[in-house]
Amino acid sequence: MAILEFPEVDTADEHGLLAIGGDLEIDSLILAYSQGIFPWPISEEFPLAWFSPNPRGILRFEDLHLPKSFRKFLKKNPFEIKFNHDFENVILNCAQVKRSNQPGTWITAEIIQAYIDLYKQGFAYSSECYLNGKLVGGVYGVCINQFYSGESMFHFEENASKVALVSLMYMLNKNGIHWLDTQMVTPVIKSLGGSEIERDDYLKMLSQALSPADD
Fold first, then answer.
1. Are residues 98 and 200 in the same domain?
2. In this structure, how many other beta carbons lie within 10 angstroms of the beta carbon of residue 76?
3. For the segment 48-81, what is each residue's pLDDT rounded down to a tens digit?
4. What would the 3-class secondary structure string for 114-162 be?
5. Residue 214 pLDDT grade (very low, low, confident, very high; cuts 50, 70, 90)
C-alpha cells in the first residue's frame, strides 16, 4: 500500500533521517520527492530509510564549473550522448560501483525495480555515454514536472560519468530547467560547482519546479 503521509521534514535528525519503513510504490516515491524526501537504504537494520537533509546539495547551471583539463577533454569528446536510451542498464551499473565510504550499495534490488517502474511511468530518466556503441558511463535520477534530481553515476571510461552529467545540465538548461538536486555534495559534484543551501530554500525551489505553470 502506498505511503499516504510523511512526517514534517523539520523533524528529521541531524543526519537528515526522517522515517523508517514503508514501501517503494510509484505513488510513495512521487509523494516523497514532491516533499523534498528521498529513500536511502543504509543498512540491513534500516533496509528502507527516508531522508531530508539540511543543508541540501544542488547544482545550478549558472554555477557549473568545468575544470581546464575537463574542458580540454570535451573538445575531443569521444562519447556519443543519449538520453533515456537504456535506463535499466544505467541503474544496474550504478549499483555495481564500489564506494570507499560504503561497505555495500544502497541501490538494492528493491530500489532498482522501483526506479525502473518509475522510469516506465515517465518519472525517472537516464543520461548515457557510449563509446563505439558500448555504454561506458551514465547518470540516472527522478524527474517530476520541472524538478530533476540526480541519484547516482557510473563510468567505465575516464570522464564518462562527468560528460553524462554535464550533458544533462546543458539539456535541462536549454529546456528552462536551471538546477539539479544532488541531495548531497560529493567531491565530484563540488568540483563541478555544486553547493549546499538551507532546506527551506530548497523546498521553495522545489515547489516552483513542481508547479511550472505558476511561475
1. yes
2. 6
3. 999 999 999 999 999 999 999 999 999 999 999 9
4. HHHHHHHCCCEEEEEEEECCEEEEEEEEEEECCEEEEEEEEECCCCHHH
5. very low
Q: Starting at the edge strand that comes first in sequence, how are the strands of the sheet with 17-20 ordered?
A: 17-20, 49-51, 38-39
152 alpha carbon, distance to own chain's centre: 6
Is residue 182 included in any domain, yes or no? Answer: yes
Name the residue with cell 547551471. Answer: 61
Q: 69 and 26: one domain?
A: no
171 and 73 within one domain: yes
- Per-residue model confidence as pLDDT tens digits over 86-139: 999 999 999 998 765 555 578 999 999 999 999 999 999 999 999 999 999 999
- How many domains in the chain? 2
pTM of the model: 0.93
Instruction: Assess contact for 24 and 111: CB atoms under 8 A.
Output: yes
